[in-house]
Amino acid sequence: MSTAPMIDAQRLGLMLGELRLPTIKHIWGDFAAQADKEGWPASRFLAALAEHELAERDRRRIGRHLAEAHLPAGKTLDCFAFEAVPMISKAQVMALCAGDGWLDQGSNLILFGPPGGGKSHLAAAIGLALVENGWRTLFTRTSDLVQRLQVARRELTLESAIAKLDKYHLLILDDFAYVSRDQAETSVLFELISARYERRSLLITANQPFGEWNRVFPDPAMTLAAVDRLVHHATIFEMNVESYRRRTAQARRTGAGRPAAYTTPKVLEIIRDNQDENEVLASDN
Predict the structure, then answer these.
(1) Which sequence spans correspond to the domains of the chain?
(2) Residue ranges of the AAA+ ATPase domain (predicted)?
(3) pLDDT tens digits, residue range 124-169?
(4) Burial (0-12, 13-18, 19+ Cβ within 10 Å), 154
(5) What pLDDT is attached to residue 249?
(6) Can you identify the CATH homologous superfamily of domain 77-244?
């Protein structure tokens, strides 16, 4: 009598393993005991097991996609200072993070602005949110990707290398305008843009506006063609703000504990005036 349940449990475990249902294999015993105790109908018991299996699969899938995305650590929307970039709508960014619509259509997102303005942070944060919502992304410095594509070209596998990138719904090319003017480099970059046009999305961060992209593409015709493909279906954010790193450095010089977001040139001027006044009072005494 005591061996029959054990034999059945072992057999059930084997079957669940063959069916690739590891979560159900792990939890079914506890759920069965609870179902017997509380008198669950069979449909409720089965639904509870299926829900946990699906939830665990989602968790594992997101973990795999996060690992392959190579997103920089700590760059989330929660810690992005939207108040420091007033030209960016948080509501619009949150809508983009859902991914529906623009990723299905192969549309692009382009972030312009000077160094230190938060472009890479925002790009990574959007990429993270998209992964959490079920999309696949890859974050890479443009120069690093171009070097890999150049190697593929020399090995006569460029077409295959670009095709492998199709598994990513969004390809984030950081520091786009830092690519040199070498013809071989820019030609593989152009082929990537052309291959993904209206099929798969790109998110680009760049310090220079389109008018200065002749530094990236030495051929004017290639520059025009690349820009045309990128902007045809694109959302463009211009993040023309003072460098966050510079603001942080200023805040450290004015005293510990002052948040960089609140350290403006006007505040710094007031602080300096107060310091000068204190020095005058000290000399009078």
Answers:
(1) 12-69, 77-244
(2) 105-237
(3) 999 999 999 999 999 999 989 999 999 999 999 999 999 999 999 9
(4) exposed
(5) 55
(6) P-loop containing nucleotide triphosphate hydrolases (3.40.50.300)
More confident position, 244 or 16: 16
Whether the CB-CB separation of 184 and 190 falls below 8 Å is answered with no
pLDDT of residue 268: 46
Helix (H) or strand (E) holding 19: none
Q: pLDDT by residue (tens digit) across 74-96?
A: 999 999 999 988 899 999 999 99
Give the predicted TM-score (pTM) of the model: 0.74
* Chain centroid, CA 254 distance in Å: 33
**Residue 271 has what pLDDT?**
44
Longest CA–CA span in the chain (Å) reads 100
CB 139 within 8 A of CB 72: yes
Rounded to a whole number of angstroms, the CA Rg of the chain reads: 27
> Alpha helix (H) ranges present in 176-264?
183-196, 220-232, 244-253
Rounded to 10°, the helix 220-232/183-196 angle is 30
Asked if 260 and 247 count as a contact pair (C-beta separation under 8 A), the reply is: yes
